[in-house]
Here is the input.
Amino acid sequence: MIVAQAKPFPELAQMLQDARRVLVAGCGGCVAVCQAGGEQEARILAEAIRLWAGEQGRPMEARAVVVPRQCEPEWAQSLGPAMDEADVVVSLGCGVGVGFLAEVRPGMRVLPGLNTSFGGGTVSPGVFEERCRMCGDCVLGRTGGICPVARCAKNLWNGPCGGSADGRCEVDPQVSCAWHQIAQRLTARGETGFLEEIAPPKDWSTAGDGGPRRIVREDLAS
Amino acid sequence: MSRLSEVLAAGRFAVTAEIGPPKHADARKVRELARLLAPCTDAQNLTDNQTAVVRLCSLAAAVHVREAGGEPVLQLTCRDRNRIALQSDLLGAASLGIENVLCLTGDHQKFGNHPQAKGVFDLDSVQLLAMARGMGEGRFLNGEEIKAPPRLFPGAAENPFAGPSAAFRAARLAKKARAGARFIQTQVVYDLAGFQAFMAAVRQLGNPVPVLAGVTPPKSARALKYMQGIPGFRVSEEALRRMEGASDPKEEGIRLAVELIRQLREVPGVAGVHIMAIGWEEAVPRIVEESGLMPRPEIQETDGIGGAA
Amino acid sequence: MTRSEPLLVAFCCYWCAYAAADLAGGMRLSYPPNVRVVEVPCSGRVEPELILRALNEGADGVMVAGCLEGDCHYQRGNLRARRRVERLRRLLEELGVEPERVEMFNLSAAMGPRFAQIVAEMTERLRGLPPRKFQAVEEAGA
Here is the structure.
């Protein structure tokens, strides 16, 4: 899923200075699963905005709504009438949701309530880890299912680097060294070929370095 | 041919040292250090924004060293340059007569003074080595021909003490040799037994490339303890004990470095030492002298400016 | 409207604190009458939204009272409640609201006197805080 976390409130407050009627739009997709932007978080934020505005001595209306996924044009469109009743929208979707809502009403300010963080999952309750950087050219089949792009701080293809110590990454001892794990897993499987060969430079043009990406599926297109 | 390559080719025990460029635009100290180190070492490394702290660029510093009579080893990291910039810098270095290039992935920007920087890491050190070799052979990374190929003597670094195991580190050293490394500089050695285990693994792989063992004279017990805290460093208890008990820590540090160099010379497969005195370069001439490594071998100067003849 | 006493909303767990409040009444213990006790099935039921809404609707302070740690009828509800309250207090600070207006307590059903004491303490604390600004707005608008 797309993992996100709430923006610090003061940052949001800065953007909401002139607002009078705020619509807080939650999303029932990924951000609801990681408990950053679902229905409950939207209601909390709406209450928080009211409380903050009240304390500032200029009360604001703040209303929470939620759609199953903001990244579907139909669901995004369905928020149009509610958006019309507000003067500012705070989207608790990922960056995709914010962008889609902004397209629904290009004349309106649609603010991000979250920082969209990474493609990852829940490793234990309340702990989320990055697993995919969406580079557009998956190599997990050769690296034992452990991604050197998403999980090596230096994006190494011929690791581990000299900073790998006791299976930990030099950048953050809380983080496992991806290449240590790759080496262990492939060795255990008896698949050391990839470790020995000189992995060639990656083609980053599929990774967003080639410009914004677009996929067209003729079989699905209308 | 580079002096370093000739010393190694002749099978002479090589001695190299390190110069950290300054955090300002005045290169007098670099030239001064080059003059100090040139008589007692075969080549001098210029670090490339080491630990990701902004410093005078290694290529400019290498030119200063060369002009001061030294033999530069240009350190080049993948942290700050993509494949376009790396190839451009390699052409530029060769055009200035700088052949020795130490190909590094680079310390992560998180450790430096601009941790907000975007790390490039388009290539890693192994891929950089392969690219440098290819360029020497007249090919850009994309396969296009280079009319006047750069004359390069690429080297690499390896950490005998990093994970997962000494055998794995040796295999990675061999991989770097296959990619194009003509010499290897290792991480600082204090743990001789650990280093010997690593070299045994290197010998098992057929000693694929000359290895220069890293040596740092400790200035104090505190400096040693600090290094102990850095991932990938291994400091022996004995060295720490000796530094802590020393009445004159600097003298003890020099003694320790000299003893280590003498022991490292005896390790089969070690082709030289790389002395990283980090801010204490004044100690290097004495260390080299007392290690019995003076005078340095005479090498016939050959004209090396520009591309391959 | 002017309020002489601060309004305190107490979310009380059915299994302990609510019974303690009941006991305090049964024992004829005197405690400030400005508390509004809201029975919840477990302190873990008290979402941050409820606390924020209470503050938005005019409460000067909110207390969440759950079972003694280790005694939660649902194992960990009270522990979760405490963490949520702690997180909410950090948010309150960012919202410009004194975090000490909200507090988590642990009680057993037998602790009637303790309940009365907590209410008195919270009331005293809220009296010491500057009046909520939103009240001033309401008064000005009235």
About this structure: Chains C and B do not touch (no CB pair under 8 Å). The domain at 8-137 of chain C is CATH 3.40.50 (Rossmann fold). Strands of chain C lie at 8-13, 35-40, 61-67, 102-107.
